[in-house]
Design brief:
This is L domain-like protein. The chain is of the alpha/beta class. About 35% of the residues lie in helices and about 15% in strands.
Length: about 475
């Protein structure tokens, strides 16, 4: 009996074991199926989220394109002279060249194949850098989101609306945002003592640091980005043209990271009265269009790397120009006689350049030949017409130039250094003279000193 009972029990245990194993396998299979199902659901959720995100991105792109079309339409209206109400302060009809050029650039950048772009010969004079093209896209994306936020936070009784500065000041706001992105705006420096409002803040762009203008229409009249740490190899982006109808002051000084050349379309800024881009790394020649600015009263471009000559067309600025500070560049050539027609000029600084000799002045005041070899003849880079303006009691009160080369450098044997010799007249009519850095021998300096010791020294103040 015992063996039989044992066999039955063992059989029962084996059957129970099989059932347990089968149940465990079934449970494990069910659990695995559940896990797999959960993973599939999670994966599906992720896919749905990704799909929703993609849809959101596509929607944002669509909104950005709509914003681009709004910008392009306003540029079209303006370039077609249909903007009398939009820019009432514009002194004259807009220049078709620069506005049509930026229209073509914006259409190519934002609409691509949809754009109906007419090619123009002026396009050969301009091409966007990669940095500028990227800045253009970033500015549009920012403006689109900013517009959406503004419309949702600003409400009226019956409907949502955006602030007034968005309506007529849309081009100005977009232009400022593009300038920000194109000049490394993320690393700009602000004056914390003045409670500066940073660029791209959710306020009117006229409240941003260095920006001022008409609060009624949102148009910018002043842009001061001095001491801001601007970085660009191509000056400012083409979008600066969008500010040209009303911009009166453009200051970009003390930005050594700002390079490139002054663009030819600067001549379209017909409202501009003050242009300051001194102490930068800008270079190149001055465009002829610069001399077409009817209201330009102050031009400060000193301590930079500008080259070339000063055009005779500078005489066109006679109606407004009061301050011309171009010292410490690399200008060459002869200064034109037309500078004497700048009747309203109060101050001019020319030293630290490489200008040629314009005329010589003898002791009796007559003009001589610079190459005549007469020891009684003094060379001068200043046109005689400018000296006449200064000495005839005109507006010119400050004329700073280079001295004749080494004329005032006399070695002091006791102190071992060069000193100014006040008895030597620096130039025929300047009010302040800056000795050039080159040196000659002590004997040569003494010879120059003796030659000009009696040369109308009382007419000039030497500092």
């Amino acid at each position: 009996m015992m063996p039989h009972s044992t066999t039955a029990a063992a059989r029962h245990n084996r059957i129970s074991g099989r059932i347990g194993m089968n149940n465990l396998a079934a449970m494990t299979s069910s659990f695995s199926t559940l896990i797999l199902l959960l993973l599939l659901l999670a994966s599906n959720d992720i896919a749905l989220a990704s799909s929703a995100s993609s849809s959101s991105d596509e929607l944002l792109d669509a909104k950005a394109i709509d914003m681009a079309r709004r910008i392009i339409q306003q540029v079209k209206d303006y370039s077609n002279n249909n903007n009398v109400e939009q820019h009432p302060s514009s002194p004259s009809p807009p220049s078709s060249s620069s506005w049509k050029m930026i229209l073509r650039v914006l259409e190519k950048s934002f609409l691509g194949d949809e754009a109906e772009v007419e090619e123009d010969d002026n396009d050969n004079n301009y091409s966007s850098s990669t940095n500028e093209a990227n800045a253009r896209i970033k500015a549009l994306q920012w403006l689109t989101l900013d517009y959406e936020k503004s419309s949702s936070s600003s409400t009226s009784r019956h409907h949502h609306k955006v602030p007034e500065y968005y309506e007529s000041g849309l081009l100005d706001r977009y232009a400022l945002a593009t300038i920000y992105y194109a000049t490394n705006g993320e690393d700009w420096i602000y004056d914390t003592n003045d409670d500066d409002t940073p660029f791209l803040s959710p306020t009117s762009h006229l409240q941003w640091a260095g920006v001022n203008g008409n609060n009624h229409d949102g148009h910018v009249s002043m842009l001061d980005l001095s001491h801001r740490n601007l970085v660009s190899s191509t000056f400012l982006p083409l979008e600066i043209v969008l500010l040209s109808p009303t911009l009166e002051l453009l200051w970009l000084s003390d930005n050594t990271g700002l390079s490139g050349s002054l663009p030819y379309y600067i001549g379209d800024f017909t409202s501009l009265s003050s242009l300051s881009i001194y102490q930068t790394s800008m270079s190149g020649t001055l465009p002829e269009s610069l001399y077409n600015l009817p209201k330009l009263s102050s031009l400060r471009i000193y301590k930079s790397n500008f080259t070339g000559g000063i055009s005779s067309n500078i005489g066109k600025l006679s109606g407004a120009l009061r301050w011309l500070w171009i010292h410490e560049n690399q200008f060459t050539g002869r200064l034109p006689e037309e500078m004497g027609s700048l009747s309203k000029l109060e101050g001019m600084t020319l030293h630290g350049n490489l200008f040629d000799v314009v005329h010589d002045v003898r002791n009796d005041g007559s003009v001589g030949d610079a190459d005549g070899g007469d020891d009684e003849v003094k060379s001068n880079i200043i046109p005689w017409s400018v000296c006449t303006n200064l000495m005839s009691g005109g507006e010119l009160k400050h004329l700073w130039t280079d001295c004749e080369e080494d004329a005032l450098l006399l070695d002091d044997e006791e102190e071992g250094e060069s000193k100014l010799n006040a008895s030597v007249k620096a130039c025929s009519c300047c009010t302040r003279c800056f000795p050039r850095k080159t040196r000659t021998t002590k004997n040569e300096n003494e010879r120059i000193s003796l030659s000009f010791a009696d040369d109308m020294a009382s007419d000039v103040s030497v500092n």
